């Protein structure tokens, strides 16, 4: 089992590229408060995301759309107080990245609250925003595949990138976000073979959620890791690690170990 020690160096943005180069899997969880953040840090979680999933798992909404910049800034400040090693990423909520300039304002608040990187969904016009942020010293994590802020257009939370055209578009978007300056790429709900191809093609680390075992790291929503019923249908890629870990810290350590030894996600958590 992994146990973080006080001597361990904090995760940095350049260390992400080192991990991919050295073939070390990155372990990421979502988090919304300082108490859980402390346990994650001690369990050796590399990346902690204040996700806009907080709209669904903390606030009880049916989607992430109601989440505001104030919400993410508040939870980012809470989580930052609990971390000493993990790299903290804050999600740009719905429409806070509608233009490069408003994304810069929101991102600046998140970095002042303790984040080291911001995450945004999509490519297209968001490529200008990624460039705008990166040129202004704000590291960016991109997010492709199932982008929950597009739920109305997509008509639900569905696997993306199936079929040749959709797969090619996703590969092209992945190359484009890398060129725009993103340092990390979340791939959500895409076939394993496509996620493997993207991970091979881009030099930035990919972090999968429902994207099979070949990504450079994995992320789960905290409530899913702990088997908490958040009132929504449990997706196939979710595994209750509390059952095998036996405690909060044990669940996080079991998740980290399974990601690092490649046993999670298994075929039953992945899409073809
Ligand atoms: O908001 C979130 O929690 C996320 C993860 C599922 C990657 O975007």
Automatic annotation (TrEMBL):
<dbReference type="GO" id="GO:0015940">
    <property type="term" value="P:pantothenate biosynthetic process"/>
</dbReference>
<dbReference type="GO" id="GO:0032259">
    <property type="term" value="P:methylation"/>
</dbReference>
<dbReference type="InterPro" id="IPR015813">
    <property type="entry name" value="Pyrv/PenolPyrv_kinase-like_dom"/>
</dbReference>
<keyword id="KW-0489">Methyltransferase</keyword>
<feature type="binding site">
    <location>
        <position position="52"/>
    </location>
    <ligand>
        <name>Mg(2+)</name>
    </ligand>
</feature>
<keyword id="KW-0963">Cytoplasm</keyword>
<comment type="pathway">
    <text>Cofactor biosynthesis; (R)-pantothenate biosynthesis; (R)-pantoate from 3-methyl-2-oxobutanoate: step 1/2.</text>
</comment>
<feature type="binding site">
    <location>
        <position position="121"/>
    </location>
    <ligand>
        <name>Mg(2+)</name>
    </ligand>
</feature>
<feature type="binding site">
    <location>
        <position position="119"/>
    </location>
    <ligand>
        <name>3-methyl-2-oxobutanoate</name>
    </ligand>
</feature>
<keyword id="KW-0566">Pantothenate biosynthesis</keyword>
<feature type="binding site">
    <location>
        <position position="91"/>
    </location>
    <ligand>
        <name>3-methyl-2-oxobutanoate</name>
    </ligand>
</feature>
<dbReference type="GO" id="GO:0003864">
    <property type="term" value="F:3-methyl-2-oxobutanoate hydroxymethyltransferase activity"/>
</dbReference>
<comment type="function">
    <text>Catalyzes the reversible reaction in which hydroxymethyl group from 5,10-methylenetetrahydrofolate is transferred onto alpha-ketoisovalerate to form ketopantoate.</text>
</comment>
<feature type="active site" description="Proton acceptor">
    <location>
        <position position="188"/>
    </location>
</feature>
<feature type="binding site">
    <location>
        <position position="91"/>
    </location>
    <ligand>
        <name>Mg(2+)</name>
    </ligand>
</feature>
<keyword id="KW-0479">Metal-binding</keyword>
<feature type="binding site">
    <location>
        <begin position="52"/>
        <end position="53"/>
    </location>
    <ligand>
        <name>3-methyl-2-oxobutanoate</name>
    </ligand>
</feature>
<dbReference type="Pfam" id="PF02548">
    <property type="entry name" value="Pantoate_transf"/>
</dbReference>
<comment type="subunit">
    <text>Homodecamer; pentamer of dimers.</text>
</comment>
<protein>
    <recommendedName>
        <fullName>3-methyl-2-oxobutanoate hydroxymethyltransferase</fullName>
        <ecNumber>2.1.2.11</ecNumber>
    </recommendedName>
</protein>
<dbReference type="GO" id="GO:0008168">
    <property type="term" value="F:methyltransferase activity"/>
</dbReference>
<dbReference type="GO" id="GO:0000287">
    <property type="term" value="F:magnesium ion binding"/>
</dbReference>
<dbReference type="InterPro" id="IPR040442">
    <property type="entry name" value="Pyrv_kinase-like_dom_sf"/>
</dbReference>
<comment type="similarity">
    <text>Belongs to the PanB family.</text>
</comment>
<dbReference type="GO" id="GO:0005737">
    <property type="term" value="C:cytoplasm"/>
</dbReference>
<keyword id="KW-0460">Magnesium</keyword>
<dbReference type="InterPro" id="IPR003700">
    <property type="entry name" value="Pantoate_hydroxy_MeTrfase"/>
</dbReference>
<keyword id="KW-0808">Transferase</keyword>
């Amino acid at each position: 089992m992994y146990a973080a020690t006080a001597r361990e160096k904090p995760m940095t943005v350049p260390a992400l590229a080192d991990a991919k180069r050295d073939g070390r899997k990155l372990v990421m969880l979502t988090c919304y408060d300082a108490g859980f953040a402390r346990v994650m840090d001690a369990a050796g979680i590399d990346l902690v995301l204040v996700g806009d999933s907080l709209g669904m798992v903390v606030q009880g909404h049916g989607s992430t759309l109601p989440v505001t910049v104030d919400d993410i800034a508040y939870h980012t400040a809470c989580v930052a107080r609990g971390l000493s090693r993990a790299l903290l990423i804050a999600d740009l909520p719905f429409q806070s990245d509608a233009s490069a300039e408003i994304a810069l304002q929101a991102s600046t608040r998140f970095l002042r609250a303790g984040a080291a990187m911001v995450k945004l969904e999509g490519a297209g016009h968001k490529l200008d925003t990624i460039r705008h942020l990166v040129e202004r010293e704000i590291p960016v994590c991109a997010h492709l595949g199932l982008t929950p802020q597009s739920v109305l257009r997509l008509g639900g939370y569905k696997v993306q990138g199936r079929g040749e055209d959709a797969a090619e578009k996703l590969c092209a978007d992945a190359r484009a976000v890398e060129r725009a300056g993103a340092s990390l790429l979340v791939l959500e709900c895409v076939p394993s073979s496509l996620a493997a191809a993207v991970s091979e093609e881009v030099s930035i680390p990919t972090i999968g959620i429902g994207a099979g075992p070949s990504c450079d790291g994995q992320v789960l929503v905290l409530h899913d890791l702990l088997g908490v019923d958040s009132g929504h249908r449990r997706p196939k890629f979710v595994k209750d690690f509390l059952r095998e870990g036996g405690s909060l810290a044990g669940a996080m350590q079991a998740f980290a170990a399974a990601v690092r030894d490649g046993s999670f996600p298994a075929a039953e958590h992945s899409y073809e």
